[in-house]
Write a structure and sequence with these properties.
Helices cover 28% and strands 26% of the residues. Strands 2, 5, 6, 7, 8, 9, 11 and 13 form an eight-stranded mixed sheet that branches. Strands 1-14-12-10 form a four-stranded parallel sheet. A two-stranded antiparallel ribbon has the order 3-4. α1 runs antiparallel to α2 and α2 runs parallel beside α3. It is α/β, with parallel strands linked by helices and 239 residues long. A hairpin with a 6-residue loop joins β7 and β8. It is globular, with a radius of gyration of 18 Å. It has one domain: 3-Layer(aba) Sandwich (Rossmann fold), CATH 3.40.50.2020. Bound molecules: 1-O-pyrophosphono-5-O-phosphono-alpha-D-ribofuranose and uracil.
Length: 239
Amino acid sequence: MQDQQPASTGEPAVSTTSRPVPSTLHISSHPAVLHKLAVLRDEATEPKKFREVVRELSWLLGYEALADARVRPLIVQTPLESMTGHELADRIGLIPILRAGLGMVDAMLELMPTAQVWHLGLFRDERTLRPVEYYNRLPDSATVDLCLILDPMLATGGSATAAIEVLKRWGAVRIKLVNLIAAPEGVEAVTAAHPDVEIHCAALDRQLNEVGYILPGLGDAGDRQFGTGRSDQGEVPPD
Ligand code: PRP
Ligand code: URA
């Protein structure tokens, strides 16, 4: 991919949508995020590179999303003297949405090695675009203080809303959504249903197409990570 635009000051990748941007939506404006996102979008980026960039972007977005995690004081003995440092006080839960969210886990674990990882399996029914839950092994009650839902794409918001509902029923109190690309429709749906959930993303794109894919987007995040791309991706399914 070649840079064809003049250098910019790193404005967040906001779409030209006229919808208001809710205060719970955080769009990264970090130059490294902007650069990597363009690599990710490029249709020529092959699965190996795609996975690598998903991982790198996840680290950067995770860093921003966890900026308000709570810490408590801790006495540390340096070779020279004793001082008050900090340790993480919040128990962090990472909830990757299968499949595409899997690629975001390792980077988050590098950032927060003590985090618990709870997998949720959801896929979108191609025709209705409604989420179908197929895997959930959460224990009876919440074991973490702060949950980060990991999913590269927030499209209609159906999957994210379903995941948030599962976590709230579980007893999760603080929930954040970490997406690589969000559509205005998805942000609106999540914000309307769960105004307490903050959304961290690398870009807010323009809109969904008629089969629920994000425009301009990056295509199917799961297929591009796992090399399972299908030729009919993004086309209207036959009756
Ligand atoms: C994708 C993506 C989200 C969902 C977003 O998953 O990873 O989970 O679609 O769409 P929504 O906001 O309209 O619900 P998909 O259903 O393709 O499953 P996969 O990760 O197994 O490919
Ligand atoms: N899921 C994806 O992987 N991509 C989209 O654009 C929408 C949903």
